Batch of 3 targets.
Target 1
Amino acid sequence: MRLNENFLNVKESYLFSEIAKKVNDYSAQNPDKKIIRLGIGDVTLPLVPAVIEALHKAVDEMGAQETFRGYGPEQGYDFLREKIVDYYKKNTIRLELDEVFVSDGAKSDVGNITDLFDKDNVVLIPDPVYPVYVDTNIMNGRKIEFLNANADNGFCPLPEGNTKADIIYLCSPNNPTGACYTKEQLKTWVDYALENDAVILYDAAYEIFVQDENLPRSIYEIDGAKRCAIEFCSLSKTAGFTGTRCGYTIVPKDLKVKVNKLKLLKIDSDVVEINKLWVRRQTTKFNGVPYIVQRGAEAVFTEEGQKQIMENINYYRANAKVIADTMDEIGIKYFGGVNSPYIWLKCPNGMKSWEFFDYLLENINVVGTPGAGFGENGEGYFRLTAFGDKDNTVEAMNRLKKLFGFEHQTEPEQEAEETKEDSE
């Protein structure tokens, strides 16, 4: 028996597990301290009423003989896939039903999609980056090249003259930096992929936070993208499904790759649709998302569901504004916070990322995410999220102002009123 020794090249501790350990240790030693967590991107608002109603109804159906459901289709029930197709159609994007695959979250599919690609492919990943992109490819033993994302390019890097890659990861709005690609920038990437027979793995988990109508919410807004890109979406942040687990992946039929048919005796053509391979992979390794969860997800895309989740999104947008306004007031440079739930700030006074983490935890009991955990270019940066409780977010920012010698304090009641007005 031999191990897949590539796993030994992955860091022993996942970034957020390391943060949790530090915070738990501090809390045990300081039980009287109120710790405010603005680090991990988990939502705090409950599922909206339309979703809860749909979940309850689906549970009742599972308790009656005539409406009970057993195994469902691995690709997702048509009732949900149709709603997703309609959701894209409102954004002028046409999809076929069998191009939509329902999953238990974007994180799973972003990792699992690599099953389709040979380990000899070169993977291009922007740095800083969501750790899952890197770790899953290390586990498979692929060569990874890092793309230099930094303040000079607004953390939206473009192909460089010597860029050579087969698989490209892009995330917009970006986790962790909050940066968003423009349509012109994405067109540059699409053109590159088409010219170099590369595949773009496009993470659009935060698309609902885009407020600027000139910014793309899907890579399929770009001409040619269906011939080179797979898009991953999630209901985790969109509709609070972090604990309920549901997402979807779009694999266009126009996305085709050449193969060496000498190695594949049962293949009649030297061109294969990625869509068909993903169907085969999912029907082999995935049993589908539970019927109850998919009924809840279906409710997200109803008129009432969309109205209710936008109220929640506006709540988080208001939190992001509180954080961004605080950065402006105390003079800390940052990215994101407008079309993204993340605020990516430059650590003050030349502090390192983990140094700033400890500084905030020990002095004002506020938790964020050290940028160094997202890659070399993340060193010296720090991520705060807007997914916390509103009053806690205001309190955390007041503590930060006081720490940096600013006396003006934001009132939670004032912010609550502004949030209400924004949602209207």
Target 2
Amino acid sequence: MRRNDLANKNEEDGMMGDKTYNPYEHAQAQFDRVAEIIGLEGATRELLRQPMREYHFLIPVKMDNGSTQVFRGFRVQHNDARGPAKGGIRFHPHETADTVRALAMWMTWKCAVVDIPLGGGKGGIVCDPRNLSDNEQERLCRGWVRQVARNVGPNLDVPAPDVMTTSRHMLWMLDEYEAIHGGRFPGFITGKPVGMGGSLGRTEATGYGVVYTLREALKEKGINIAATTASIQGFGNVAQYAARLYSELGGKAIAVSCWDHVDRKPYTFRKKDGINVDELCGITDMYGGIDKSKAQDLRYEVLEGGAWLEQAADILMPAALENQITIANVEKISPQVRILAEGANGPTAPDADEVIKKRGIFVIPDFLANAGGVTCSYFEQVQSNSNYFWEKDEVLEKLDSKMTAAFKAVSELARQSSLYMRDAAYVISINRVAQAARMRGWV
């Protein structure tokens, strides 16, 4: 399996809903709400609700046919008061500056909620790697690094993989960075291959982190995980490992959805007596797309893409892209659903969030639930910088400890202050970043 979230296209019908959706406005609305709750002063509010730095640039790439194609690239550093910026690089044919801004902002809160000494950043290239050769992808990666080589680095901004990027892309980027700066800087980038500065456990980290927080939520509610069912959106890296660990702990995943690149539409694959993760992975491509005909041969029902949301399950795990649960479909959530564990970034639109809150569904918010990836990236950075690498069990034990402590802190604040879980997570994160900015004398 590759380090990819669900590689679907956010412009297609049935996946992103409202075409006017702006993720940056979504992220700012969430921030503004909590800034009011905690009475954040004006200057600090202005500093934290927008990126500190942005880099927009063009990347000319020599294509295999001899032509030159120009791609648009981005790197956004939202805030680095608590440490170097940290965040993935995503390849997507409809990437936008506002998407990257939102993701960088969410990364700031994500690093703060799990209390690791990093800030928030994000990068992207407007491209579809499925239509590029390996050589063209390598030139594109190296071109991206050349444009930002003076503005990123182990002590400034540490990239990582994201949607449709892999450890291979990260190694090309590292090699280019080291060639430019004339030395070895393995801590410049994370998500590298194991044996080349990568960390054991990194591949599993985001999906496992979702389930670690889910496990703690079920414990608090006195629910036996073996008595629960789940429906999952996505079947990329995050969804695959979340489904795997959830099943190993005794839960039963009954449905997953994915994007079909040939049909250019999503499908949901359902097996009411429980999906077999290994079985499905065997018929899944590197971008998380499941072969429909082979799935039908294995007795999976093939349903419409949005059917994952409507399943009579106890747990929903959106693990694809932003804006998947909207005011247009939120009422389709089954009355049986008790927990929403957000494996994706920003999967729930603010107006849909209000409906979920009123229904009493327990939410494990995105930047808490999916913080396992950046936490393990931090572990990789520490190992790379010290040139000493841990065993896999040690990595996952440290990850479990970090995710469990973060969940308990958010849950405790939510109970004590009668806050919605998402608001409680934001209160902790924003306060930590605001305090760092004050201590530095920035505000």
Target 3
Amino acid sequence: MPVSSRHSPIRPDDRDGFDAIIDARSPAEFAEDHIPGAINLPVLQDDERARVGTIYVQHSAFEARRVGGGLVAANLARHLAGPLADKPAGWRPLVYCWRGGMRSGSMVQWLRLVGWDAQQLSGGYKAFRRHVIAQIEALVPQLDLRVLVGATGSAKTRVLQALQDQGAQVLDLEGLARHKGSLLGALPGVAQPSQKHFETQLATALEAFDLQQPVYVEGESARIGRVSLPVVLVQRLRAARCIELDATPEERLAFLLRDYAYLGDDPEALAQRLSQLTELHGRQVIARWQDWARAGQLPELFDELMRLHYDPHYGRSQARNFVHWDGRPRVAAPDLSLAGVQALARTVRALE
């Protein structure tokens, strides 16, 4: 049962008023998603949690509590002797588990016995998850979005980063998703977040915005790699004002060769990824592209990918997806170098 608090129930909105946030769930639960800034001090490890669950099903609730209690006590002792050993007497942590039950309750009881004013998050992670969804639903419709669009290789993400450097509010969805959003957008050695953690990061970003000021964002499809944008955000993007970055094919190709140079580090992986386009372009074209990939001939490969795959669908898809496409301002982007991107960001901001 949840621990009775000496104060009113602690809600997700109250979490910033504590010295630390402790996630008492197992490492696997923490890895899927957690409250931003939380530290994971599990009262049961993944294998221990599975073991206690099995005992509960195969034997009894009492036996599960008996075995689990011993495991919890041992883990809490390690935390007290380790990560918590240097905490002062006035330290005030907020503790949560899955739904504000026995795992966080047991930790709070122990921490209070030590003398700390530990509190339990009412409803646990499930309450925080509801908070995340509610914040997205409430805040997204209030955003004054400026959506950057442009053909593949127009340096949209770089312009967003430059806008942020210049003090503008930016929602970097590809950064949150850890993916560049295209067929070749997976980042080497970087795993995408879970859907829940992506949404937690999104809600955290939204909470930091001044809703009276514009927010710049890149035009995205409904999915970025394997994560999906919330429907309310897709709808807001489609209805927002567009700003098109208009770069020449030559400048775009040069930028892509710089920005995706790492794809040449694993030619076979690149070739395998291209096989996903066989149905669209046929075996002969894909075989040619795969030969170029394996030979490290990225200029030839990227040039044809732009001309035969990305560009033919660009205008039609944008006109279909964005309500204000026909009235978009077009910003010439003759130079996609670092200095050119900074200048481009200043031009985009001047459109406000």
